[in-house]
């Protein structure tokens, strides 16, 4: 298989390492030449310079969510058989791939973990199946990933809660919280501070893209305001709603 990974950052490199074998020809292209070269060196592949005009059996898009539609349009013609993405959203990439690659296999993949925490749950939309898509799923499963078949709508709606809302709640706590001596920590507060450390250890731009792509922040803000404004009786009612 000839594989082109567009976007040679951590997720693009993870995809290549997870699906390519020694018999495959792997190439990377990135807006930053050094990033492509580093990824290629890590997996024994090639670093290409755009524009890319070679044909590939599979093109995988591992770019920031705001760029995915334009990148699909730019690189779809390089894919002779299949195209997929690992961008993190699904509605927009699937729509873009349908428009630009109507006669090819199409998949959208979202690892629900950072590459350094692999393996884990991996959301999968198989828009048009075929032999390459089947091979990719088999290889990902062989790496102990749990593949979760879904739809673009179901996935993106879930991300509003598990990413946008969750990140908003954790970051809001981080911004509001004061430093507290360890002796005063409760199990709940200690867990929250651990979550703050986990969330803020990532790339701020990635989290910003998630917040822009998915609703959820306003709902968390509204819920927090409702709690802040609640009298004793209303607070008890709100608390008991979640029991």
Describe the protein's architecture and organization:
This protein has an eight-stranded mixed beta sheet, sandwiched between helices. The chain has two domains: 2-150, NAD(P)-binding Rossmann-like Domain (Rossmann fold); 154-241. With 243 residues, it is of the alpha/beta class. Helices cover 51% and strands 19% of the residues. Helix 1 (10-19) packs parallel to helix 2 (33-43), helix 6 packs across helix 7 and helix 6 crosses helix 9. The protein is elongated and about 65 Å long. The protein has ten helices and eight strands.
Architecture blueprint of SSEs:
Elements: E1 2-6, H1 10-19, E2 25-29, H2 33-43, E3 46-48, E4 56-61, H3 68-75, E5 79-85, H4 91-100, E6 105-111, E7 121-128, H5 131-142, E8 146-149, H6 152-176, H7 187-200, H8 204-213, H9 217-229, H10 232-241
Parallel strand pairs: 1-2, 1-4, 2-3, 4-5, 5-6, 7-8
Antiparallel strand pairs: 6-7
Helix pairs in contact: 1-2, 3-4, 6-7, 6-9
């Amino acid at each position: 298989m000839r594989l082109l990974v567009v976007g040679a950052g951590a997720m693009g490199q993870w995809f290549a390492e997870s699906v390519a074998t020694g018999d495959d020809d792997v190439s990377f292209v990135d807006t930053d030449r050094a990033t492509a070269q580093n990824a290629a060196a890590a997996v024994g592949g090639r670093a290409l310079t755009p524009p890319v005009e070679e044909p590939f059996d599979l093109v995988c898009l591992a770019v920031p969510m705001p760029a995915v539609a334009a990148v699909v349009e730019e690189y779809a013609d390089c894919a002779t058989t299949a195209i997929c993405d690992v961008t993190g959203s699904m509605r927009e990439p699937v729509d873009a791939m349908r428009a630009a690659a109507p006669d090819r296999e199409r998949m959208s993949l979202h690892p629900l973990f950072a590459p350094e925490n692999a393996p884990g749950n991996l959301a999968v939309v198989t828009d048009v199946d075929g032999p390459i898509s089947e091979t990719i799923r088999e290889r990902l499963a062989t790496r102990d990933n749990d593949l979760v078949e879904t739809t673009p709508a179901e996935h993106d709606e879930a991300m509003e809660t598990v990413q946008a809302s969750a990140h908003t709640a954790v970051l809001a706590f981080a911004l509001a919280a004061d430093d507290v001596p360890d002796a005063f920590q409760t199990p709940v507060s200690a867990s929250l501070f651990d979550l703050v450390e986990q969330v803020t250890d990532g790339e701020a731009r990635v989290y910003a893209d998630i917040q822009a792509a998915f609703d959820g922040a306003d709902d968390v803000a509204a819920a927090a305001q409702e709690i802040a404004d609640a009298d004793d009786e209303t607070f008890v009612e709100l608390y008991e709603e979640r029991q």
